[in-house]
């Protein structure tokens, strides 16, 4: 007879999670690193009770905002290269709804995150209940259904026995290289406390491994035929290279064939800055060097990238006749824009393509052309990050200061606004896998929360290193409470708050499309009669952080060294110019919607100018 144990639904979920492990390079880790939680009536009594009894195995970090909890979980998963994840638990109603944006971020970035969220009572006996969203003609439809659009796996637990199937299915989704993303479990408040006699074997320890899918031989053969015919080949290295732990294989593949490599935003830090085949970042926020060779390449090997518009310049960055070979664990990504798909693990696929293409080498003059372009870009960056000649303070200067003083294994975080572009273009990689620029969903507010989550993971891996986040004043104002979280949890981060007086990068886009500055910079808001600046130092200090303001890049460097030596989270504030000092080189075309008619001549002229280069846009699907 099968032995059973009587548990509530919530107890079964937590006990099962605590028994799941993963093998990473021969070392065993609990696959769930714990969770982030804010309790409410929808999750405190049952799920809270279950988590209390397993707090040693699954530490629970108290969040300040559900959205930032999700961002922290994403930062944690990125640092662990998707091999480990955190759960987020929120109450029913607005607490759960606050996780929607974070779920969108995890979905866009293909990151594992488990959401355990309260739901209305299954019996409906007390309906309508506090925070219930009533739909008159569909009583089953509620806030939690909104997560179907931003989850890779979604389920509502309507009976305790259901978790026997649902939990393994959710975990399998989060561990699948091709289908990875957030999993959502709606937990009705009554069902959380209902009991079931679960088979004890369900809670036995289990060790998982990430599947490595071998590529199809025919797809490799098609890719080889295209590659060996190339006169001007190029490799686009995406974030999937790191998730596959295929950096060595990528490097070996490129070196064996002398093929230039460019990096996506998510793929930054695949190659060291000084590697001779590293030609720079590509795309809208890229480099002249990478975009120059992209425009001339005839065969492009895209590895672990979803070919987002910032990578492709809205599909204007490449020659119309260029052929793509897309290596990706996800079939959906591998077949984009009429690519020759190689569906499989990056490490196995690169090795197979290398072996089958043995003897091929890119023409020496092509590689030399790419390397010369990179030298010119390096000279531009060196000048761009310098701070002589009374230049106005800029993002690039702050990036250069930190780049020169940080340790090579420190973690760099940026997101949304102007800083992702500036970090992508100007950061010179010191070590592999040390840069997290969240631009998949481009979420303001990720900077501090994501850094906190990354620091939690980093403290499990490299506790002596620092997590450093670049944050604009707009993002800081949107979501800053995890400065407090980092101090409370003793997970030190270094936050550089670069204050340009509002949403300056969108103001720049507004001006670049012929529009007048309006509602982006604080000084340009007609509903603000008396603009004033925020005392970020006082605010950060009030949350327990060390904080100081500096006047220029030189002072920033001195403050950064003090922050490195400090024992807790430190915030450094520097004003930067909202108009001058932007990186002006390296930008590919980007499609944005502009007015086809306007009473403003400048807007009309900008629309005509913007559309004038659309003829380079590939029409493939």
What does this 3D model show about the protein?
- It contains 24 helices and 23 strands.
- The protein has 3 domains: 205 residues, 3-Layer(aba) Sandwich (Rossmann fold), CATH 3.40.50.970; 161 residues, Rossmann fold (3-Layer(aba) Sandwich); 189 residues, 3-Layer(aba) Sandwich (Rossmann fold), CATH 3.40.50.970.
- 36% of the residues lie in helices and 18% in strands.
- A 6-stranded parallel sheet has the order 5-4-6-7-9-8, sandwiched between helices. Strands 14-13-12-15-16-17 form a 6-stranded parallel sheet, sandwiched between helices.
- It has 621 residues and is an alpha/beta fold.
- The chain starts with a strand and ends in a 10-residue tail after the last helix.
- The radius of gyration is 25 Å and the shape is globular.
Annotation keywords:
Rossmann fold, 23 strands, globular, 621 residues, 36% helix, alpha/beta, 24 helices, 6-stranded parallel β-sheet
Beta-strand share of residues = 15-25%
Oligomeric status of the shown chains? single chain
Q: Helix- and strand-based class?
A: alpha/beta
The global form is globular
Mind summarizing the main beta sheet?
6 strands, parallel
Strands of the widest sheet, in order across it, are 5-4-6-7-9-8
Helix content: 25-40%
Please state the second-level CATH architecture of the largest domain.
3-Layer(aba) Sandwich
Uncertain spans:
none
Q: Tally the helices.
A: 24
Compute the number of strand runs: 23
CATH topology group of the largest domain: Rossmann fold
Radius of gyration equals 25 Å
Total separate domains: 3
Distance between the termini: 57 Å
CATH homologous superfamily label of the largest domain: Thiamin diphosphate (ThDP)-binding fold, Pyr/PP domains
Main CATH class of the largest domain: Alpha Beta
Overall average residue pLDDT: 96
């Amino acid at each position: 007879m099968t032995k059973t144990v009587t548990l509530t639904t919530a107890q079964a979920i937590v006990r099962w999670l605590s028994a799941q492990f993963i093998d990473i390079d021969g070392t065993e880790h609990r696959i769930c690193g714990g969770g982030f939680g804010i309790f409410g009536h929808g999750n405190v009594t049952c799920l809270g009770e279950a988590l209390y009894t397993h707090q040693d195995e699954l530490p629970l970090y108290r969040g300040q905002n559900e959205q930032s909890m999700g961002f922290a979980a994403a930062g944690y998963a990125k640092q662990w290269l998707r091999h480990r994840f955190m759960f987020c638990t929120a109450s029913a109603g607005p607490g759960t709804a606050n996780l929607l944006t974070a779920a969108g971020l995890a979905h866009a970035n293909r990151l594992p995150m488990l959401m355990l969220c309260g739901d209305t009572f299954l019996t409906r006996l007390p309906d309508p209940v506090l925070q219930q969203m009533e739909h008159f003609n569909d009583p089953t439809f509620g806030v939690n259904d909104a997560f179907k659009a931003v989850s890779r796996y979604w389920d509502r637990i309507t009976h305790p026995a259901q978790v026997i199937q649902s939990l393994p299915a959710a975990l399998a989704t989060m561990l699948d290289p091709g289908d990875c993303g957030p999993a959502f479990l709606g937990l009705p408040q009554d069902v959380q406390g209902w009991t079931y006699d679960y088979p004890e074997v369900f809670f036995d320890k289990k060790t998982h491994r990430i599947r490595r899918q071998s590529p199809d031989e025919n797809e490799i053969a098609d890719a080889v035929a295209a590659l060996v015919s190339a006169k001007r080949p190029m490799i686009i290295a995406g974030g999937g290279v790191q998730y596959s732990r295929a950096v060595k294989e990528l490097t070996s593949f490129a070196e064996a064939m002398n093929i230039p490599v460019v990096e996506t935003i998510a793929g930054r830090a695949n190659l060291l800055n000084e590697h001779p085949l590293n030609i720079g970042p590509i795309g809208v926020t890229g480099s002249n060097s990478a975009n120059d060779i992209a425009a001339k390449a005839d065969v492009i090997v895209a590895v672990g990238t979803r070919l987002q518009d910032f990578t492709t310049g809205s599909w204007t960055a490449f020659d119309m006749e260029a052929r793509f070979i897309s290596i990706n664990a996800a079939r959906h990504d591998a077949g984009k824009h009429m690519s020759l798909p190689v569906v499989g693990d990056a490490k196995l696929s690169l090795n197979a393509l290398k072996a089958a293409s043995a003897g091929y080498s890119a023409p020496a003059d092509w590689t030399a052309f790419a390397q010369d372009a990179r030298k010119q870009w390096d000279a531009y960056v060196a000048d761009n990050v310098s701070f002589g000649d009374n230049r106005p303070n800029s993002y690039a200067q702050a990036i250069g200061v930190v780049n020169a003083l940080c340790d090579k294994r420190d973690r760099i975080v940026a997101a949304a606004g102007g800083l992702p572009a500036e970090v992508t273009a100007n950061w010179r990689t010191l070590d592999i896998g040390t840069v997290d620029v969240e631009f998949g969903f481009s979420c303001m507010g990720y900077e501090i929360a994501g850094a906190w989550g990354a620091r939690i993971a980093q403290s499990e891996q490299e506790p002596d290193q620092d997590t450093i986040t670049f944050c604009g004043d707009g993002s800081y104002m949107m979501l800053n409470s995890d400065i407090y979280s980092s101090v409370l949890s003793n997970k030190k981060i270094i936050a550089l708050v670069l204050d340009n007086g509002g949403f300056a990068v969108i103001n720049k886009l507004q001006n670049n499309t012929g529009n007048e500055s309006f509602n982006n910079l604080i000084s340009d808001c007609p509903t603000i009669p008396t603009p004033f600046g925020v005392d970020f130092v006082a605010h950060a200090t009030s949350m327990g952080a060390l904080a100081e303001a500096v006047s220029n890049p030189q002072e920033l460097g001195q403050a950064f060294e003090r922050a490195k030596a400090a024992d807790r989270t430190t915030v450094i504030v520097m004003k930067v110019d909202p108009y001058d000092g932007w990186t002006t080189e390296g930008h590919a075309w980007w499609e944005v919607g502009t007015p086809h008619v306007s009473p403003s001549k400048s807007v009309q002229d900008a629309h005509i100018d913007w559309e004038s280069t659309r003829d380079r846009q590939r029409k493939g699907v």
